[in-house]
Amino acid sequence: TISKGFRNARLKLQGKAEMSEESIDEALRDVRVSLLEGDVEFGVVKNFLGRVKDKALGKVVDVEAKDKEGKKLKLSAGDRFVQICYQELEALMGPVDTSLNISKPVTRIMMVGLQGSGKTTTAGKLAKYLMAQKHRPMLVAADVYRPAAIDQLQVLGAQLAIPVYTESGLMPPDLCERAIQKAKERQCDVVIYDTAGRLTIDDALMHELEEIERRARPDNTFLVCDAMIGQDAVRTAAEFAKRLALHGFILTKLDGDARGGAALSIKEVTGKPIKFLGMGETLDRLEEFRPAGLASRILG
Amino acid sequence: FGAKRELDKSLLDDLEQILITSDIGVKTAQHLLELVSNKIDKKEVDQPDKVRAALQAEIERILDLENRPLEVAESKPLVLMVVGVNGGGKTTTIGKLAQRFRDQGRRVVLGAGDTFRAAAADQLEVWAQRSGADLVRGKEGQDPSSVLFEAVKRAQSSGADVVIADTAGRLHTKVNLMEELKKVYRVLGKAALGAPHEVLLVLDATTGQNAIAQAAQFNAAIPLTGIVLTKLDGTAKGGVIVGICQEFKIPVRFIGIGEKLDDLRQFDAREFGSALFD
Ligand SMILES: Nc1nc2c(ncn2[C@@H]2O[C@H](COP(=O)(O)OP(=O)(O)OP(=O)(O)O)[C@@H](O)[C@H]2O)c(=O)[nH]1
Ligand SMILES: Nc1nc2c(ncn2[C@@H]2O[C@H](COP(=O)(O)OP(=O)(O)OP(=O)(O)O)[C@@H](O)[C@H]2O)c(=O)[nH]1
Ligand SMILES: [Mg+2]
Ligand SMILES: [Mg+2]
């Protein structure tokens, strides 16, 4: 659904031959509303608009379009402005890097994030994704707090017919370290640590993640983030990025109608790539990140 | 715009930033600032504290909807249905609500109406044990309506005071899942007169503007009687609730402030309003 904000900007600008600074500012106000309604963070919006304005005022002809015969078209200033918005947003969301760090003999992947963001389900999805690439993953039940969290992971493991390592009485740092040896024993070449949801202001639990990192040295630590998160995305992502070596993030529940502005905010603030997108509740609903779709969704 | 033109632009910008970063939403923020700047006295226009206080008062007024406590009706059992999108905190909130009723000496039955997600019934079972509630669960993949019908029947036959129906998380954009919810609502009505007496939408306080669509769609499917705003113990302010209360007039009944059994509070508009400006 196209939000009013960006549609207003487009309508006002359609075919406009010239764009004065005043009309650019007016269009930027519409874009601002659209991005804020799309849950992009306040400061990130400000920076984005500044960059768009610079490009719009600039004399650099870097925006091109072609007609049906592939001949270059001259864009009106209005159309050019719209193009700049899309291109700038896509550029900010990229470059695309959906690679996973693989190490021998056992690749370690750690899922972290706020409560309910989709870590456990995504752990299962990643396992399935890796199996399609001929890996042999093992799931590790490192959430020892949430009622039936271990059961939940075991159900997913059973659906995929892969081992789930759990050991009662062990705290997550010990468990995650021991899991590596268990994986070797079971001929698995990847371990995926499902950790408990936590608040960034919970110092004890944030320290637990630092401990897991110290003991198990994950090759890939992914921040799993709900696409419907609002302005808090920046606070949360910044804190996780500050305390851990984040390799990338995964945006979940994009099968809804949340605009997903958090993706831009998190990318801006952490500089880390968006790796995957969660597009549903079943284990096959994981996609590698592509900027175009998400950019136009955020812009509205 | 009268008084507004006299309000310092930087003061307005600062206030707008506070409102937007608390997830109040850009349009709601702009309306609030317009309203307040029209209301305040010409003499007070250059006093930031006065403007802020007027804003806070207006927000509290919007949120201060009638919030009756959950009460066991004349006709037992009170039937409570809990709904919302995935991961918002429904199952955990039900555990907390069960404990609240147990503290009042009530007998509670929990209905494991999430028959889809891995280990959902097991999770609710732990909460039933912790709160001393009875649990009715079905088979995996069983029609949620039949499990919840059974839960109400168990409550009736055992003389329980309250039934709390857990439902699977669902995105409001999924038509078939929203139809399933409507069916649960109808079936509960067949199981007991006037049921469900309360339908609570669980909203995660970290959610941005999408919460408005969630409230709109869930309310359109089944009439909501209240909202529970969870995860307010985090850094998110939950400001999106202001626009929701203004538009739909659905009262926030409780807030979730943690993951333990007693981490539930009755909603207080004044406390919420002041926390927004902290
Ligand atoms: N529609 C949809 N639902 C999802 C997606 N990913 C996860 N979910 C659902 O979101 C809810 C929470 O998922 P979990 O995997 O339990 O989340 P979590 O981060 O492990 O939660 P905690 O361990 O409590 O922090 C469940 O109902 C999942 O089925 C997705 O991409 N789309
Ligand atoms: N910090 C905090 N966490 C909460 C709160 N309420 C729930 N949670 C956590 O949020 C996560 C999801 O809670 P659930 O009760 O499983 O959520 P749900 O809505 O039933 O999820 P689905 O059934 O999968 O849709 C769990 O890790 C809970 O412990 C709260 O008020 N504060
Ligand atoms: Mg989990
Ligand atoms: Mg649940």
Features:
heterodimer; A: 300 residues; alpha/beta; two-stranded antiparallel sheet; 10 strands; B: 278 residues; eight-stranded mixed beta sheet; binds guanosine-5'-triphosphate; binds magnesium ion
Report on the architecture of this protein.
The complex is a heterodimer of chains A (300) and B (278). By secondary structure, chain A is of the alpha/beta class. Chain A contains eleven helices and ten strands. Chain B is an alpha/beta fold. Chain B is built from ten helices and eight strands. Chain B has an eight-stranded mixed sheet, sandwiched between helices. In chain B, helix 8 links the parallel strand 5 (198-204) and strand 6 (226-230). In chain B, 52% of the residues are buried. The model of chain B has no long low-confidence stretch (mean pLDDT 94). Chains A and B meet through helix 2, helix 6 and helix 9 of A and helix 1, helix 5 and helix 8 of B. The structure holds guanosine-5'-triphosphate (2 copies) and magnesium ion (2 copies). One guanosine-5'-triphosphate (GTP) sits between chains A (113, 115-121, 143, 146, 149, 196-197, 252-253, 255, 278-281, 285) and B (86-87, 117, 169, 171). One guanosine-5'-triphosphate sits between chains B (84, 86-92, 114, 117, 120, 168-169, 202, 230-231, 233-234, 256-259, 263) and A (115-116, 146, 197, 199).
Helix/strand layout:
The complex is a heterodimer of chains A (300) and B (278).
Chain A: H1 4-13, H2 21-37, H3 42-57, E1 65-66, E2 72-73, H4 77-93, E3 107-112, H5 119-132, E4 137-142, H6 149-160, E5 164-165, H7 172-185, E6 190-195, H8 203-216, E7 220-226, H9 232-243, E8 248-252, H10 262-270, E9 274-278, E10 286-288, H11 291-299
Parallel strand pairs in A: 3-6, 3-7, 4-5, 4-6, 7-8, 8-9
Antiparallel strand pairs in A: 1-2, 9-10
Helix pairs in contact in A: 1-2, 1-4, 2-3, 3-4, 4-11, 5-6, 7-8, 9-10
Chain B: H1 9-21, H2 26-39, H3 48-63, E1 78-83, H4 90-103, E2 108-113, H5 120-131, E3 134-136, H6 144-158, E4 162-167, H7 175-191, E5 198-204, H8 210-221, E6 226-230, H9 240-248, E7 252-256, E8 264-266, H10 269-276
Parallel strand pairs in B: 1-4, 1-5, 2-3, 2-4, 5-6, 6-7
Antiparallel strand pairs in B: 7-8
Helix pairs in contact in B: 1-2, 2-3, 3-10, 4-5, 6-7, 8-9
The structure holds guanosine-5'-triphosphate (2 copies) and magnesium ion (MG) (2 copies).
